[in-house]
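Table 4 source record.
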Amino acid sequence: MPDLWYGSVLVSLGLGEAVVISTLITGVGNVLNHTSISWDKFLYRIPIFRDIIERLIQLPSTHRAHHAVFDPEGKIPMENFGQFFFIWDTIFGTARFPRGIDPTAYGIPNHPQDNWTSQLWWPIFKSDQKNSVYSNRSYFRDGN
């Protein structure tokens, strides 16, 4: 939705070409991150490119880590939020670099007892259910 809002403002300011170009770049990036092709595997053989590129843009391996059900420690991951620019995760400490290791399972845990508002609008509306993934942030970090 923010793309629609800022795109409308930019088009009305006469920057329609910039909106088209930025939409194409992020669209292609999103398609490449959501394919089953691990096109970023070659980057992990070249440490300097890996260390720079994986901190700037979202790669398939970092995006897959975002969609993982559990991380290797068995906790629900709350990392890798960036859709295209991964630098924000790097800056704010939410970056996790799996370095080409794919998760074994994807999705979110099924919690049918949670109401739809907590599932859709967490953390604004939190669940009152004990042990819900939508109850508070400490569950995600501590597993409690």
